[in-house]
Write a structure and sequence with these properties.
single chain; alpha/beta; Rossmann fold; 5-stranded parallel β-sheet; 5 strands
Length: 132
């Protein structure tokens, strides 16, 4: 039986969390760090785009509603300016979108998560399943 006091194996995967809600950021950072991820948080769409374009991350968690640039615009720019971006881009939102809007976003993103439907721990488990 594993020792519950033993820290998890480090994944050494780097996550960029582009999210303007400080409470959600805190939850994600805590859960993902505990799961072995290195997490960087950016709270602004333009800054998030610039950071994602450094191509130093394995996973980008991208909220849709962000100050200065919507997450959908960040995603569009990432796909145009960095088509070989190695990071998996996962959209995170609580917005109620039409089926057409959601489908359009899902075609550009590598994943789509409704934040209210997933605990931070489940988020870490979801990311562990990604092939990066």
């Amino acid at each position: 039986m594993p020792d519950i006091n033993t820290p998890p194996a480090q994944t050494h995967k780097k996550v960029l969390c582009i999210e303007d809600d400080h409470f959600i950021n805190e939850l994600y950072v805590r859960a993902l760090t505990k799961a072995g991820y290195q997490v960087t948080v950016v709270t602004d769409g333009q800054q998030g785009l610039a950071e994602a374009l450094t191509d130093t991350y394995d996973i980008v968690l991208l909220d849709i509603m962000l100050p200065n640039m919507l997450g959908t615009d960040v995603l569009k720019r990432l796909r145009q300016e960095a088509p070989a971006l190695r990071a998996k881009v996962i959209i995170t939102t609580n917005l109620e979108l039409s089926e057409d809007d959601r489908t359009a976003i899902e075609h550009q993103a590598d994943g789509y998560i409704v934040k209210a439907e997933l605990t931070p721990r489940q988020l870490a488990e979801f990311l562990n399943q990604l092939k990066t």
